[in-house]
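User: Please fill in residues for this 190-position structure.
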């Protein structure tokens, strides 16, 4: 399924994937840096969250339930798994202002022992996509460092693509972080 160069949606949703409305924005639009260079979009952000790395990792790899808590994601499932390497498929529709863009993606995701989650597009609504999420234990919780590179499947004005990707990353990761906080709050106190 082609989405156009606004396959940026797919990028974001492929990067770590992301359902219902968000509670509160955990990732602010202004915290996300995105630029386009020679047709490649580069995005990144860093933030501290008050949950342990195990809870963060649990949410970031909960592919079978991700459509329940990530906006714009209508389907998410694991196609196969071999140890710490997943092959996942996701579908949805991203919205940016008055525009809606359907997307689909199939990705390989590798969870490394050093706290990194590597993702690459195998097929779907982008020509190319790679991302890396680094989780590091820190005082009071977990530091998340995320970066992504992607090439949409069709041309779009760079300014629109940059704003769209910033919006999608902020919205989707806010949903993921809200789910991390919800799960942490529901854990028994020891």
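Assistant: Residues filled in for all 190 positions:
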């Amino acid at each position: 399924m082609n989405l156009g160069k606004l396959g940026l949606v797919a990028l974001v949703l492929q990067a770590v994937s992301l359902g219902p409305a968000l509670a509160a924005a955990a990732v602010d639009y202004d915290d996300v840096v995105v630029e386009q260079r020679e047709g490649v979009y580069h995005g990144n952000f860093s933030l501290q969250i008050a949950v342990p790395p195990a809870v963060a990792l649990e949410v970031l790899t909960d592919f079978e339930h991700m459509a329940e808590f990530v906006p714009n994601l209508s389907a998410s499932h694991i196609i196969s798994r071999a140890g710490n390497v997943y092959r996942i498929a996701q579908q949805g529709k991203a919205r940016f202002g008055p525009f809606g863009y359907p997307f689909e993606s199939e990705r390989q995701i590798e969870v490394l022992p050093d706290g990194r989650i590597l993702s690459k597009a195998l097929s779907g609504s982008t020509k190319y996509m790679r991302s890396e999420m680094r989780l590091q234990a820190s005082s009071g919780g977990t530091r998340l460092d995320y970066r992504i590179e992607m090439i949409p499947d069709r041309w779009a004005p760079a300014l629109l693509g940059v704003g769209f990707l910033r919006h999608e990353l902020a919205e989707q990761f806010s949903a993921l972080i809200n789910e991390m906080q919800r799960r942490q709050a529901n854990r028994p106190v020891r």
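For context: The chain has a mean pLDDT of 83.
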